[in-house]
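Section 3.1: Structural characterization of target chains.
Under the original work plan, the team committed to producing a structural model for every single-chain target entering the pipeline before any wet-lab resources were allocated. The record below documents one such target. The sequence was received from the expression subgroup and is listed exactly as submitted; it comprises 134 residues.
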Amino acid sequence: MGRAPCCLKVGLRRGPWTLKEDNLLIDYIRTHGEGHWRSLPKKAGLLRCGKSCRLRWMNYLRPDIKRGNITADEEDLIIRLHSLLGNRWSLIAGRLPGRTDNEIKNYWNSHLSKRRCQLGDGSNHNWPPPPFLL
């Protein structure tokens, strides 16, 4: 049996975020900075769990997130880094400024992994990565 979701506490909202909630989170982080995610929702006036606030900020609301489609150069880099690092999305994202690990993982799973299998390169001969990359 798995661990219970973090948002099962009575009174916490689940599901899509509203514009009002986004603005409360943005305003709070602009004033107080990132971090202390567990206590942030209550202090910001949000009925969300800390994990939900952190993920919303990291994947959607941060001002330095690069919006728009992945470029051909970014795609090539994702493919090369994946052959070295495997599914270590946060390490790959660290080499693509403005892109989130979640965005890269979703792009890989929806576009690149299928294309790679169609080209007959479904195996990953470079896994596990060399120890210096761990």
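The two ends are 30 Å apart (CA to CA).
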